[in-house]
Amino acid sequence: MIRFEHSVFALPFALLGALLAAGGWPTAWQLFWIVVAMVAGRSAAMAFNRIADLGYDRENPRTAGRELPTGKLSVGFAWTFTLVSAALLVLAAWQLNPLALKLSPAVLVILLLYSYTKRFTTLTHWVLGACLGMAPAGAWIAVRGTLDWAILPLALAVVCWVAGFDIIYSCQDVEFDRRVRLYSLPARIGIGGALWVSRALHVIMLGLLVWLAREAGAGALAYAGLAVTGALLAYEHSLVKASDLSRVNAAFFTVNGYISVLLLLFWGADILT
Known about the structure:
By secondary structure, this protein is an all-alpha fold. It has a single domain, classed as UbiA prenyltransferase (Tetracycline Repressor, domain 2), CATH 1.10.357.140. 78% of the residues lie in helices and 0% in strands. It has 13 helices and no strands. Helix 2 (28-52) runs antiparallel to helix 5 (75-96) and helix 6 runs antiparallel to helix 7 (124-144).
């Protein structure tokens, strides 16, 4: 039901936020609990999303084979998994610092609220982006115990990146979303228009990362990482066309996984050297 490897989307940005906050390596204690918080938060959000969307997943041919609709796992198990994961997130926040602990309930509310946004707003993609955009900001808090504007460009870049690729992913469900009146952007404005919005968001993402690099005094390795990111984003958009969605999964899972990991490697090397 929950693929832990999909934490690769947000976890590298959390680790990058931690590196930026520390100006190098955070402590091993901080790194450990940041990873626990990230995996637990994402697991709670995904498990709750499966519970909230169970009715829709049963009707949608693309999702009807998932574990809850088929009965491979029970709703009771999903609830237990959600609550245990949420508790682990709060535990991790408690182990980090007082501000992290105070903010952990608000983080959980945002993570769980996302599952309902598609029912009433096309901004659902941006809400998902905000869920992952909290990762670098949360890691900054985990290391410094405070939050300031220096991490804002990275957090906003993640919001734009995630909203952009979630729009691509939701193109698969246009007909279903229209039939059951779900508010995805492709269902609202069409696949062609939605793909242009996705491209614009990814251009904005690159602009925000350039802003961050300038503000942080980044070196050649960080800018090389931006060049690689730009090339991968261009490749991602070359895979998906309004008339051909057959490679959406490659664009969504594979390319974006490379983007987050390679950006962490290039920027991390730049910060540490």
